[in-house]
Write a sequence for this structure.
């Protein structure tokens, strides 16, 4: 065994000294020499280089990592001593070798007892991270006579010396923290990637011990490729006896954070050429829209909007650090059975990175992030919008959520961050996620004679954060019903699509990932079109209406930029601007039309204050002021109701009662004595 160990050490040293890259440069002596300049304590070694140098050497690192890595560190120290002798002496006991690029990735679900004490590489998502804690590596123990005995530490419990090395005292050996050596440590939890999770199964996860300079290398929500050694750790104790049940964990050697760039799906050269050819087609955009959810008939405008959401616009970072979001948020309101959930499911699956959640079973912590206490330590756990960073979060049954849970999305939808301030812990996580939400009306069916805010129970500040809102109604028409019934029956009979989509699902997913690499900029023609449309919306505001806000203009820019991305253009053209305007017009006509006054473009509908409602409020206040007179006397409610009825602004007594309740709730009037009300003076 000593001969094998000696040979391993010599081979590792030979590799570090003699390996040359493609340009003929000695790769690792230079890397080791740079450690002194950067103050780093780890040298990163590419596993492919070791395999090219000596296959047996690479295999020994995977099959016998404890012995092999020990010899590798010794070899690295010898080479570092040649390159930077003084620095090598400083980090003699803390020098690490980290393996990067182990090619055979093992699925997290496939890790079992056959991998114990072996080096593996796995891909997954970090869902939890603990606080940083010192880990004892070299314990300094002092006896009652003041003699020092050092013991190198490993395992879970502290290893104490059996006796003092100087006076052989066996008792009163106390740990001296000041003279002991500690390193940073952290516990991470890595979970299977959502797209790799088998249907109907719970995600598999592993706790990961990170030490040294890879602490804080990954945060909750990051996708990582991790190399490390699988360990067995005793899980339980039964009374005084030790349990036979163990749990597995991973001692990390190297953590490579992936997913920082938008498209992480591997695309071959042939697929790239196919994608470019699709974009060159004369009807490219229509073909892409037709490929969206081909099992669902119609809803072209909704499909077009969701396609733009999946592509998204580029994020803009200003010189002062201010971020202008590029992700698009869309809200679908519709009758039961109009395929809202199916649309969301398709979007979450075709997105390069998509997450699906149902509002009924989701909490604020599950959607955003949470601080949890586990084993006497606090851990930060990521929710859906953090895990879907730079992707899409589809939230069904949005109306079934509790208000306090739904309010967790306010910050994310505009600032695209999730801030946690709890128990003395303050943390900000990235949540650059597009939100696609769906909800049912209050009474099941959407009432066309009521405005949007009367049909759903969502808070107004949340509604205004959606770029586009679509109302999908199930209106019986003979021709459409016949067409839809035929389509559904054909799908079931053929067990497939009635018409093959122009772009197949897998290629569409790669197309979207490829398009996200493009950051188009506005041309003057597109800028002029968007500006003219926005100013027209502002000018068309009539008395009593609320006009478009700057958020509307930003939504138009995002939609136009996303369309340019889908066409693989580096400039937003006039055609893209007109496409964005067309979608916004659809929302203006369907959603932003006051059902009472029939006026279009009334953005007060989103604020719960359409022109008709504001007119009723104004009339009510005028009548109340008239009745109280110059003396500001209390107004009898019975007389107030009679005068409101005479005004002709209200259809029935229910509307009058609703207006009175609104005045009381908003603190405009208050009950002075039974049956009499006063106005709250400004």
């Amino acid at each position: 065994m000593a001969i094998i160990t000696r040979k391993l050490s010599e081979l590792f040293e030979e590799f570090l000294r003699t390996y040359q890259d493609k340009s003929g440069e000695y790769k690792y002596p230079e890397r080791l020499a740079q450690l002194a300049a950067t103050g780093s304590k780890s040298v990163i070694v590419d596993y492919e280089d070791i395999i090219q140098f000596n296959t047996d050497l690479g295999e020994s690192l995977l099959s016998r990592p404890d012995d092999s890595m020990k010899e590798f560190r010794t070899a690295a120290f010898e080479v570092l001593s040649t390159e930077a002798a003084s620095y090598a002496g400083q980090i003699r006991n803390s020098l690490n070798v980290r393996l990067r690029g182990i090619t055979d990735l093992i699925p997290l679900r496939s890790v079992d007892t056959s991998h114990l004490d072996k080096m593996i590489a796995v891909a997954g998502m970090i869902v939890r991270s603990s606080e940083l804690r010192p880990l004892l590596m070299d314990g300094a123990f002092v006896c009652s006579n003041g003699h020092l005995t050092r013991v190198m530490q490993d395992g879970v419990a502290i290893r104490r010396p059996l006796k003092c090395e100087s006076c052989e005292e066996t008792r009163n050996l106390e740990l001296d923290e000041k003279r002991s050596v500690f390193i940073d440590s952290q516990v991470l939890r890595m979970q299977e990637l959502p797209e790799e999770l088998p249907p109907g199964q719970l995600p598999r996860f592993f706790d990961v011990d990170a030490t040294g300079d890879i602490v804080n290398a990954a945060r909750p929500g990051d996708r990582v490729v991790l190399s490390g050694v699988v360990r067995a750790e005793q899980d339980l104790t039964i009374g005084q006896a030790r349990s036979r049940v163990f749990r597995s964990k991973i001692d990390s050697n190297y953590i490579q954070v992936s997913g920082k760039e938008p498209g992480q799906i591997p695309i071959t050269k042939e697929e790239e050429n196919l994608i470019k050819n699709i974009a060159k087609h004369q009807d490219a955009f229509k073909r892409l829209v037709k490929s969206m959810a081909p099992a669902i008939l119609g809803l072209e405008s909704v499909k077009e909007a969701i396609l733009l959401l999946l592509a998204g616009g580029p994020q803009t970072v200003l010189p002062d650090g201010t971020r202008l979001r590029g992700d698009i948020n869309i809200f679908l309101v519709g009758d039961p059975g109009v395929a809202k959930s199916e649309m969301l499911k398709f979007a979450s699956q075709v997105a390069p990175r998509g997450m699906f959640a149902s509002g009924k079973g989701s909490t604020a912590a599950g959607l955003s992030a949470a601080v949890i206490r586990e084993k006497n330590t606090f851990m930060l756990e990521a929710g859906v919008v953090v895990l879907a960073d730079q992707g899409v979060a589809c939230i069904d049954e949005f109306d079934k959520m509790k208000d306090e849970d739904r309010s967790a999305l306010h910050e994310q939808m505009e600032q695209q961050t999730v801030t946690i301030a709890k128990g003395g812990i303050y943390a900000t996580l990235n949540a650059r996620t597009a939100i696609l939400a769906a909800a049912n009306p209050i009474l099941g069916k959407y009432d066309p004679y009521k405005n949007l805010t009367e049909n759903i129970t969502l808070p107004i500040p949340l509604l205004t954060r959606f770029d586009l809102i679509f109302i999908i109604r199930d209106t019986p028409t003979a021709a459409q019903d016949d067409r839809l019934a035929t389509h559904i029956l054909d799908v079931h009979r053929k067990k497939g699509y009635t018409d093959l989509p122009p772009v197949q699902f897998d290629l569409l997913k790669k197309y979207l990932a490829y398009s996200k690499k493009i950051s188009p900029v506005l041309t003057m023609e597109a800028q002029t079109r968007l500006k003219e449309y926005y100013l027209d919306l502002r000018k068309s505001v009539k008395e009593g209406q609320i006009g478009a806000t700057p958020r509307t203009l930003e939504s138009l820019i995002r939609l136009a930029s996303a369309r340019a991305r889908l066409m693989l253009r580096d400039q937003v053209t006039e055609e893209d601007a007109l496409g964005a305007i067309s979608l916004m017009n659809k929302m203006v006509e369907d959603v932003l039309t006051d059902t009472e006054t029939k006026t279009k473009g009334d953005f007060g509908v989103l604020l719960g204050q359409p022109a008709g409602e504001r007119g009723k409020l104004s009339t009510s206040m005028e009548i109340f002021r008239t009745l109280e007179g110059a003396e500001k006397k209390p107004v009898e409610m019975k007389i107030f109701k009679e005068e409101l009825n005479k005004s002709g602004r209200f259809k029935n007594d229910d509307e009058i009662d609703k207006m009175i309740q609104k005045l009381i709730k908003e603190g405009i009037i208050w009950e002075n004595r039974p049956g009499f009300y006063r106005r709250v003076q400004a």
